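Narrative summary of target 7.
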Amino acid sequence: MKKTCFPLLLFVCGTIFAQTLEISDGICGLRYESGKLLLLDRAGEPVFRIGNYRFVWSPPVAVLTEVEKIDGKNLRLHYKTEKGDPEKVAVSAVCSLTGRGMKLSYDVRADGVKTGGCMQDIVLLNGTVKSQIRKTGYWKRPLKNGVPFEIRGHYMKQFNGKNQNFWLLKNGPVNWSGKNTEHAGLTPGKEKGRFAGELEFIAAEKNTDHHLLSASLLNRAFVLETATPREYNLWEKGSPEFTLSVREATGKDRSGTLKISVRDYDGREIFREQKSLKFKAGESRAFHYTLPPMERGIYFVEASLFSGGKEYFTRTNLAVLPPYRFRSLETSPVGMAAYPERKSAYGLMRRLGVRFLRYGNNAETLPEYGMVSFFACHAPPKIYNGAKDAKTVEKWVSAIEKQKNPVFEFGNEIGWKKSREQQEFLIRCYASWVREIRKALDDRGLKHVKLITFGIQPDYSGTIMEMMRREGVFPCMDGLTLHPGRGYYTADDRKGGWTYLGIIRKAKKLFASYGYGDREIHMTEVYACTHPNDPWKDSYRQAAENTVLSIAFAYAEKNVKTMMFYKLHQGTTADPNGYQARDNGVMPENAEYDFGLLMRDDSPKPSFLAFAAAAEALDGAGFLRELSIPGTNVQGLEFDTPQGKLAILYDRTDGTNLAKLSPRFRTPDFRHKEAWEEHWKTSAEHVFKASGADVTVIDSIGRRKTVPVRNGKVSLVMNGAPLMVYGLDLE
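Modeled conformation, tokenized:
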């Protein structure tokens, strides 16, 4: 008798569950056997196993128990709740073949359970390798002029299988990933305690580039990218050059018009090209350009391709920064608050004149790079209590001893955006820890390690400092830490509030009134944020000018020991650099992404050059006096330097409120000017005494020129931008 084989089936309450089943759409497949759900490549080879769903921040685990076939493209996943109440916590999901890969769609009931840290088991099989996160972004023009900005494309993670790759479209915190887990974020539904979420994997060929894949998913016809032979697009001399690659992304024959425009800091278009192009489906073409040489400065590059009624464009900056050897770093207050921990970044900061680092191993950074590393950590939001907390303090102190850190910055912006009651509690907590830290340092023989406060911000400085005084914080501290945040005012504004110089002087005065006027002042976050078209933030040109002033006043203000710029690169700590520089994070709605001295592609902003220019000019400088030129609105600072007396001058005819310079101030239509456009309304000629044959004038980005002196006088055209001038006689 002929034997007939049937798949093994289980019948439960009218529902059919298969112990073994498989579905495929020719792109990829799913197989459930022996209680395991596998993703298959198109050849039927396992790529990874889809396992349990974990809440992580709470005890429950949803264990995959059964799989139900809905149809030829969809499976329903059934879970059993363990380590939790199944009446309150339940997970179900649909696993679908989408025609471009696989997607998991979750339906979660979680009553009284933390859902923010949910993770999905994705267990790698058959030699599959998981990549670092890749990040794509695309340039966009604002609707009503203003400065273009980048928007997010995709955050993606590659699962490199035997025959095929699968790209996970990553949502939520990019760092939440384990060897065999991926964050599976949930969003609240309309029903209380009900949540939804998804993970989607896109199938692709082994050599697929993530930029091309992202563009195709967004139906963007072209990918435009620039590249240079120099890291950070930075030359020491000569002619900057770049290569533009243009790639068709959607697999269609297309034509378009390519336009290249390059401007210098003065707004001159030093190069322009336009040509018609035809592309076959998937074709890539590269174009190389060499630009005119310059001694020092910056070029702004834009490449646009117009095709099918749409514009695709990209931007980058190229800069020339000649070598300079700092001779007096030991007297410099200049530092960096945040930076990637890689050798090229340390080398770049050394060229910028950075002396202090907010964190790091001083036993390494000082001898190798000449930079002094502090120790910094967050303060626990609880009262110090017992042996467990003593171990935490011991851990910190041991690290400081091992790393030879000379300064301990304890805490960060405590009480920021908190109620008065919350601030009072947090400062009581802070004080309890400070006393124990001070004792631990002294007992360990580390009395030379300076303990400094957390960074205090402008809008709550007075109240928070008074709380610290009442709780007895200051007697334990060797110095005060400030984060003199600045809004739309120039760095020399003295009003207080969200100003740079204003908050420094306000805090110093208050600190002195407590009897600590001789203590050190450390500024571990100083910035010139360039969030585009945001009236509270700087334009690229304003940021350069304010960077010069921020460094200059750090040199000028008594007892200020450090000024650490926040920060070197774009992005945030929660969204760090990807596997390469051009995979930095992007989020146009969040200004936290725009504090860097470098662009997202790690090319220099004008403020990068300004930082170097100010650090060079003030190398070995001693402050002499503040300047106010009679009969004019010219103000500034005078220093004694190894190169002679240096005056940093600016004309405040237009005031210190930068946003008011825009006719659309305090409107939704506010727009910044481009980096090469002058934003000051008033320029005037001023005559100064000078004793030599000429004077040397350096602008905000370090470009130098010589101006002749006639009959003991020199004429300088000035506006609100600072000029660094050698050779004036201002007595």
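The radius of gyration is 30 Å.
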